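REQUEST FORM: STRUCTURE PREDICTION
Request ID: SP-0412
Submitted by: Lab K.M.
Chain count: 1
Length (residues): 260
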Amino acid sequence: MLYGSVRSGLSIKDYLTELKAAGLGTLPGTSAEILDQSIRDVIARGRITVNQWVEVITTAHALGIRTTSTIMYGHVETTEHWVRHMALLRDIQKDTGGFTEFVPLSLIHSEAPMYSKRLVPNVRPGATGADVIRMHALARVMLGSRIPNIQASWVKEGPKMAQALLDAGANDLGGTLINESISTSAGAQYGQLVGPAELRRWIRDVGRVPAQRDTLYNIVQRYEAGDDPASPLDAVEDAEARFGSYRRLIASGEFRFTPR
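STATUS: Completed
RESULT:
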């Protein structure tokens, strides 16, 4: 949003107003990383500042455009930064009510330049399993009824940890996806298609009742035991062959730039 505002020469409010008039309904609250400028200056120097992120988000909320909220952790931050980050989100939510959910995103380190190329001193190799559980549990305690939806990222954590997080504060597994590239490019092992039936199985295996939601977390349908409608995505046998993948893309020379 900030980039679009700058490129168009419009204020953030005017730019978002134009987008809303054209059909925009919601925004992702990504690029939050850690909402502490001293940390951002280390891991994301030159990117959107804390104040700019807050301005975009609160302006969107004021216009009736709801957003997600995120945190990216497991690098150089401390648990004190986690608390400050969530406290800021909670304060914004108290004023605007515009956040639909909170999504903790642990650093996938293996191919991330800040780690693999040693661009950031003393960066950790991602969050530990204990860190991941603590993050989601802390989010549930701190955000409580203010932001009641806590999403576990199976793309970042894998299915088994995502299941465990449903007992550690999370109430959402996100979506099926098809061909994720951001986490995959950083070294994640997950991110290709997971069909609805498999997601429902993960949820039931930990004693929960799966439900489909919409973007605003309105329940579309609850799936009681044995209530499993067929989905075309469940019938896909080779998702990479059908939809492609990030790994297949970078291995192919078809789309590579070649100088004339």
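NOTES: The chain has a mean pLDDT of 89.
Reviewed by: T.R.
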